[in-house]
Specification:
The chain has ten helices and eleven strands. The chain is α/β, with parallel strands linked by helices. The radius of gyration is 21 Å and the shape is globular.
């Protein structure tokens, strides 16, 4: 039998990826046609299963909760917060599958935008040229992209997205995000693309509650009582382009829907000859906003994130056991 040619080696994975991608799209269309209550109840069940099966995630969540809340919570309270967080994450994904494409009627079906928030955002988007939107892994951060449907004349949005375990899943998520009015960029090399987009007057979106290693440009900034590697990108891009920063969160409501919450812009009056100190100060202010949301709405955060993956000391100290010394 003759040796397989390189093109043949690549053909099967491409066909397989294409088949899986179209299967995912077909499944999404089925979910989009289900009653909303079915979607919510099914997502809750998925969340409970994920909580039960993800031993690593439960360990990470327990360590995060111990670091951030200390002895203020009992063991049962920590478990309940993590379980609710997993159900919330599953709901967020289920709702995106159900609501896409996020036209204005579909977006408003699932998300409340308080009149004062809509008015403030509308005025800001009309007045500014370029802005940095920051959020975190609370509620349904993906649904924030649907805001573009109610501000059709606003500049286009680009944001950084994490790669997953599979290229076909990345492609499907990019498809979903594209239906909400945003364009995603991979974190590797994506910072340059969104910086250029901001310079040209576009909107950029960043989640700021992940660990950012030193090799990825992360800086040490206080978060929940510890020095945590944090992304300087929002502060850096806003300072370089004289652009405002808008902290926005899409938080769950008791009826299964979501509400847009707009926090005050962190003061950008920090402009000295020491750029590094200015960036650190703005990043610290952003971390304080995220911490405020986290402590106020603990059941809405994704507790399996290794927020303290890096630590500045060889000794473990107050850091969780999963942390690693990042000199």
């Amino acid at each position: 039998m003759p040796p397989r040619r390189p093109t043949e080696d690549r053909l099967l994975p491409r066909l397989l990826y294409a088949a899986v991608f179209h299967l995912l799209r077909a499944a999404q269309r089925v979910i989009a046609g289900l009653p909303p209550r079915w979607v919510l109840n099914g997502s809750d069940l998925v969340g409970i299963l994920l909580y039960a099966l993800d031993h690593r995630g439960r360990r990470v969540a327990r360590q995060n909760l111990e670091v951030i809340f200390g002895d203020a919570l009992t063991h049962e309270e920590r478990k309940a917060i993590h379980r609710a967080g997993m159900q919330g994450a599953a709901r967020a994904f289920g709702v995106i599958l159900h609501a896409a494409p996020l036209t204005e009627p579909r977006f408003r079906r699932w998300v409340d935008v308080p009149p004062e928030v809509e008015r403030a955002l509308g005025e800001a988007l009309h007045e500014v040229r370029g802005a940095v939107i920051v959020s975190g892994h609370f509620g349904s951060w993906e649904m924030l992209l649907g805001l573009a449907s109610i501000f059709p004349h606003a500049a286009p949005v680009r944001f950084l997205a994490e790669s997953t375990f599979s290229p076909v899943v990345d492609r499907f998520l990019a498809y979903l995000r594209g239906t909400t009015g945003g364009t995603s960029e991979r974190r590797t090399g994506g910072a340059r693309a969104i910086s250029l987009h901001l310079r040209r007057g576009g909107l950029v979106g960043l989640v700021v509650d992940r660990n950012a290693r030193r090799t990825s440009g992360g800086i040490w900034a206080p978060f929940c009582g510890l020095e945590a590697r944090s992304t300087p990108l929002p502060a850096l891009m806003a300072r370089r382009n004289d652009a405002p920063i808008a902290p926005i969160f899409c938080m769950p409501k008791e009826d299964g829907r979501y509400e847009i919450v707009l926090y005050p812009e962190p003061s950008m009056d920090v402009r000295t000859d020491d750029v590094g100190a200015d960036i650190l100060e703005i990043t610290t202010r952003l971390n304080a906003i995220v911490e405020e949301v986290l402590r106020k709405y603990p059941t809405t955060w994704n507790w399996v994130l290794k927020r303290f993956k890096s630590r500045p000391t060889e000794e473990l100290g107050a850091y969780p056991p999963y942390s690693e010394y990042d000199r």
